[in-house]
Write a structure and sequence with these properties.
32 helices, about 575 residues, mainly alpha, globular
Length: about 575
């Protein structure tokens, strides 16, 4: 029998060998293309692609000299160094490339940022100029090049109007980011129009720009206008009550902490760092985590005091499934204030759940919740939600109820608390209380598809209000088209009303959407049986038994159905 994985690996080795051979000078052939170098190169790239940066670094650092012949090698190696936060080593390697007359976008970017931090502006300018030649217009690299050259030129500019005209020359492909940079330009030059510029940016009340409320408040704090800063901050928190940096700044002000040393838009390093963050965030949203991490590390190097960059860094690794690495970064974040502490604690607890350490997770989060001196309604609500999600229904009910004592029915959390507590009551065997909470949630906010679904499905299972449930589920289905759970509930309502043909249509669609859900598959099998598709029905009942997360009671019912079928058919 052929070992397919081994064969593929050999073929990849051969491909790399051939490609390296084609670009390598004859005199260096033996040096570069021995089997150890090929192996290290292959393993290094493979590790990098798998986001295993420490392993990638281990292999690639052995390949001294390969940068002479292979541009991609130096790029890969720098990505590994930067992602491991080995900035000084990355800079030394960039200098090595420079001495060898090897130009790369990454090496000049790293050197330019290093020189900027060291206030060697002439050298930084030369590095950023080189970026123009090493990037294409209307690409991320091209835009980064344009922006860095714009900001380094501001050192020789005396007024904001000239700065804005320079920024106007940037690529229109990234117009939104350029507009953000213009606001920072007003701030950098301390223009009288700075307040207006910030208000114009944040005034549309979209989460997209909530972050810049922080920088507006920070600007006013640096201007010693604490009263106006707090006013803007409080308005921002009302609009975006869960924004981390807004809430943490508010806490810092309350505690009398030094909050102006973390960011100043009159500090060129700080402003460029924030630009890198914007680029990093945009790349991460497209799944470009390797490139995203590059710009994040550059941001952290230029402004290590601003914790927001670590948050994105941790989220990148969490999104990549590198949860141990993410956990280490979240532990750093915990040290930067109460708001960040709770945020990071919740995610660390989730990581522990993922690792099948539920008991440890619950204990960990309990300790960290009790550390909060005066938890706000959002912190209490999130803790209640966590308890409910981990089947601590009695405890979660207590905290949901605690939230209700602190808010009125008009509060945005009210329908969410009613929904969450309703689920906890239902799972705790207290149906009357659950039903009341679901109805209160819908009275407060009628178009909640998942609340409609939960209540209607519960009624159907109890054999009550089936016709009303059908109407509600038809509404929910319109609100959430092609949602597997809602489609299943709608099909099941039709089934209970003995409209088996129509039921089968919806239940078949639900199975297509969620092919591994045990309950949905069982419902579909039941509809097949009632429509005289007996062989298919038995197939699906048997299939359900092979799925994960099939509860003991469901298994018992399935075995009975396989033996006896259902009582009636059409």
């Amino acid at each position: 029998m052929v070992n397919t994985k081994l064969l593929i690996k050999i073929l990849i080795y051969l491909t790399i060998f051939i490609s390296l051979s084609s670009i390598t000078k004859a005199k260096n052939f033996n040096k570069i293309n021995n089997i150890d170098n090929i192996s290290n190169y292959f393993n290094g790239i493979l590790s990098l692609k798998k986001n295993e940066y420490d392993i990638s670094y281990k292999y690639l650092k052995k390949l001294d000299g390969l940068e002479n012949e292979h541009y991609k090698f130096s790029q890969y190696y720098q990505f590994s160094l930067i992602t491991l936060e080995k900035f000084n080593e990355a800079y030394k390697y960039s200098k090595k490339l420079e001495n060898k007359k090897i130009d790369s976008f990454e090496s000049n970017l790293i050197s330019g940022v290093y020189n900027l931090k060291q206030e060697r502006y002439d050298k930084a300018f030369l590095n950023f100029q080189k970026l123009k030649k090493l990037s294409k217009p209307d690409t991320v690299q091209g835009f980064v090049s344009q922006s860095l050259n714009s900001w380094i030129s501001f050192l020789n500019v005396t007024n904001v109007e000239d700065a804005l005209s320079i920024l106007d020359k940037n690529s229109k492909t990234f117009e939104q980011i350029t507009n953000i940079q213009k606001v920072f330009a007003y701030c950098y030059f301390d223009s009288p129009k700075t307040n207006t510029a910030f208000k114009n940016l944040t005034g549309n009340e979209t989460k997209k720009f909530s972050r810049y409320i922080y920088f507006h408040a920070n600007y006013l704090l640096n201007k010693k206008n604490k009263k106006k800063s707090i006013e803007i901050l409080q308005e921002g928190i009302k609009l975006f009550p869960r924004n981390l940096i807004l809430n943490q700044l508010n806490k810092d002000i309350e505690l009398g902490k030094n909050f102006t040393d973390k960011f100043s838009c009159k500090n060129l390093n700080n402003v460029v760092a924030e630009f890198f963050f914007i680029i990093s965030n945009a790349l991460a949203s497209q799944g470009g985590y390797i490139s995203s991490n590059l710009y994040l590390i550059l941001a952290k190097y230029l402004n290590p005091e601003f914790i927001s960059y670590n948050i994105q860094y941790a989220e990148n690794f969490y999104s990549l499934g590198k949860k141990e690495k993410a956990k280490k970064i979240y532990k750093r974040i915990k040290k930067n204030g109460e708001v960040f502490d709770w945020y990071a604690s919740k995610i660390i607890a989730s990581i522990l759940i993922d690792d099948k350490q539920t008991k440890k997770s619950l204990e960990f989060l309990k300790i960290n919740f009790n550390k909060i001196k005066n938890p706000d309604v959002y912190q209490i609500y999130s803790y209640a939600d966590f308890l409910k999600s981990n089947e601590k229904f009695k405890e979660s009910i207590q905290y949901y109820t605690n939230v209700l004592t602190l808010i009125d029915k008009k509060h945005e959390l009210y329908p969410k608390v009613m929904h969450g507590r309703g689920i906890a009551f239902e799972r705790n065997g207290e149906w009357e209380k659950a039903e009341k909470d679901f109805l209160n949630s819908l009275n407060a906010l009628p178009d909640q598809a998942y609340v409609i679904n939960y209540l209607a499905y519960s009624w159907i299972e109890k054999g009550i209000n089936v016709k009303k449930s059908l109407e509600m589920l038809e509404k929910a289905n319109k609100l959430r088209v092609n949602d597997g759970y809602i489609t299943d509930s709608l099909g099941w309502a039709l089934f209970k009303l003995k409209n088996f043909k129509e039921a089968q249509k919806y239940l078949e669609l639900a199975v297509r959407i969620m092919p591994s859900d045990p309950v949905i598959n069982e419902h579909y099998a039941d509809s097949l049986w009632m429509n005289n598709h007996l062989i298919q029905a038995r197939y699906y009942w048997k299939y359900v038994l092979s799925l994960e997360k099939v509860e003991k009671e469901q298994k018992k019912k399935l075995k009975e159905k396989l033996l006896f079928g259902l009582k009636t058919k059409i």
